[in-house]
Amino acid sequence: MKPSAFLSLVLVVQTLVCTTKTSAAIPKTKDKPRKYYVAVNGADTNTGSLNSPFQTINIALSHAAPGDQVLVRGGTYYQEVKFPRSGVPEKTISLQRYPGEKPVIDGSKITVTGWQALVTLNNVSYVTIDGFDICNLHSAVGNTDPQGMAIIGSGQHITVKNCNIYNIKNNTTLAQGRSGHAILAIGNGVKPISNLLITGCTVHDTQTGTSENVTLAGNIDGFTFSHNQVYDTENIGVIVAGGDGLNPHGAVESNYARNGIIRDNVFHHNTMTKTPETWGPDRFGAISIYVCGGANTLIERNIVYESDRGIGLVSESNIYPTRTTTVKNNLVYNCYRAGIYMGDYLNYTIAGTKNCAVLNNTLFQNNRVPGAFGEIEGELRLTEHCDSNVIKYNKVYAGPKDVMVHKYTLTGSHNLIDHNSYFSTGQPQWIWNSTNGAPITDFQLWKKTSGQDASSSLKTVSTKFYANLIRKWKRSPQSKI
């Protein structure tokens, strides 16, 4: 997530260049909105009508005034797209696919230098992009960052919907700065990015190295990420983050993503095991939904499975704790390690996880491999500096060699764990204030040792019970959450 100094410089230059272009002359607003058309067999000397389309998307956008639409016919466009200006309230500038056709913005003929995106929205507001495949941008050069889409600076009422973003890959090594993003949103302006909506999109088949597939970082105040699918990726699915890595000079009081919703998405196979040649055979560090120094985010009704970890409320920062975030009514199952993870990485940072709530989630047979210390991470994992968090009303279905709750260290205070329902097909286990100590296997002893779960319940069930539960979920997927 944290770029090198070189990459930070490139990003600043990129921002300045794009900002300069944004100040281009704005076409005079018309009383009646217009439609401009683009086709692979068009010509930029045409008028942009349906029968006389442009060939270049950027040419069409340069003509679009607030309220206008640019409709792109089916076909492959080997172009970088940059929105040159903003719409205004009630007059959005919209870049859309032509109904019933599939336009593809393809980066296979582009050489990536520095931080480079196929679609860039820089310091623009009241804009929409709808219905595109955005794909095939690769880099094999160190200190580069290929991106499907970059949303940079300040702006409001930005909508990205029904886009299919894939095959965005960095093939360099970790030592060379392997990094990339499907969607990178960095609020690095004085005013925030706000009213950002990403919906109905798919993100898949990516190699993002040490970065994330969808990044919401820096000065972002108000976002919704809903009804998307993120799958078959190398690392983190979506992150809500502080800006101390990507926007290191931002004002501390506003340099973090906040006031957002992550709802009704499906995440699966977000895992480092897809590229063992890069990460090694035993790395399982990817988190599908990750709040890292962000705040006041609602994470609800998502399904996460077959990933390294499910949901993380974790901070990699010494400045920004992950705080005031609610995780409720999600299903996390069959992940390699923890279902829900809270707290700092051990012996790494100190900001912690504060005032968060984990409510009414279903965790099912995660922890299929040991953690980094040979331990079982736990369906619910609490590491360092967890303070004033609430974990209640969750259903935890543990595997036969699983741990229900694992609190690693003596740090943290004023946390409440209660009214949870635990199910086990074997010997139930809990670990309290120990990274790799002997587990507690008696439920009453667990309550006494931890001072938690006073009103929680434990039920030993058969493997048939689990099998029936899975059959029920297959018949009615929405009954999972």
TrEMBL record:
One cellular-component annotation, GO: extracellular region
Signal peptide: 1-24
Localization (cell): Secreted
GO MF term list: carbon-oxygen lyase activity, acting on polysaccharides
Domain Right handed beta helix: 222-366
Keywords linked to the UniProt accession: Secreted, Signal
InterPro entries, alphabetized: Beta_helix, PbH1, Pectin_lyas_fold, Pectin_lyase_fold/virulence, Polysaccharide_Lyase_9
PANTHER family noted in UniProt: PECTATE LYASE (EUROFUNG), SECRETED SUGAR HYDROLASE
Protein name: Right handed beta helix domain-containing protein
Species of the source: Pedobacter steynii
